[in-house]
Amino acid sequence: MSQALVRIAAAWLLVLMLAVAGAIVAINVVNNSLASPQQPVREYLDALQKGEGGKALGLLRASVPQSNAAMLDGTALQTATARINSIKYGDAEDRGNNQVMVPIDYTLDGSELRTEFLVERSGTDWLFFHKWALVPGALPVLDVTVVNASEATLNGVPVNMPNGRNSFAVFYPGEYEASLAGEYFSAAPTKATVSGRDVPVPPLNLMTEATDGLKNAVGSKVNEFLDICADTADKQQMLQPDCPFYHTTYNRVIDGTIDWSITEYPAVSIEPFGGRWVVAPLNGKARIQAEQVDLFTGAVTDLDTVHDFSFTTRLDIDADTIKVTPLLSY
């Protein structure tokens, strides 16, 4: 009987030892996975890629600097992280004071990058399972400027640009692209990569240019003005009309023979200057044809001369209205 009891006790002891060993293994597995320092980083990156800005901000425990919050949620946030691939979580490195650094290596738009997250012990669950949380900090800020415009597009989202500038709080890691694609003004896209909380964020500067649509619209108005000017000069039979072009002569030009025409219309160039858009001086050529009488000999000859001319304009754009005002000096 005693030998049987010993065997039973030994069996129970073995089962108990196996259970304890299994529990230790389970605890270690959980502490190295679901309760590892990498877990809050995984959850944070997952929230970013889903565009869940509120959840991401809570996991990051970050303060938001005084700035525009347009990039902190939804489509803009998803776009910022859409090109993050091949994420590899590194081993936690001790930083003292119950803090560790968790590195991640990844590719962003084809570039290989690394971001480091500082994580701290925040307690335990069920006495055995570690709790980790990201160390609080402030979000980075991305500065954006645009020449002579009060709006732009950032990560596919229209944003206001008071006085041509604005600052946006952004999550990391992420990629942010600014552009301007208006009917009359546009700017080529420019990108900035934000790889860490304390890594300097390069500003995005949009160099706005007049579109071909605006140049063509202004050119059409300029050409219309010159054509009307030439037609009016013909009707009034004037050598020196209220136009950018004129003709002077010592001969007498026979009334009824004067014919003005534009032989070369100006090329339109529109540039920013002093917070406005200005049209560069307009240069063209006008032709006058007529019959003239030499006052000394009385001979009648044909007049056929091409004159260079130049003038400036004032450009006013209000919503969808374009106004071009010629500025003539005599």
Outline the structure in words.
This protein has helices at residues 2-31, 38-49, 53-60, 74-81, 212-236, and strands at residues 84-89, 93-96, 99-108, 111-125, 129-134, 141-146, 151-154, 157-160, 165-169, 174-181, 185-194, 204-206, 209-210, 252-253, 259-264, 270-273, 276-279, 282-293, 300-318, 321-327. The protein is an alpha+beta fold. The chain folds into two domains: 32-208, no CATH class; 212-327, no CATH class. Strands 1, 2, 3, 4 and 5 form a five-stranded antiparallel beta sheet that branches. Strands 8-7-10-11-13 form a five-stranded antiparallel beta sheet. Strand 19 (300-318) and strand 20 (321-327) form a beta hairpin. Helix 2 packs antiparallel against helix 3 (53-60). The longest helix is centred in the first third of the chain and has 30 residues, at 2-31. It is rod-shaped. The N and C termini lie far apart (131 Å).
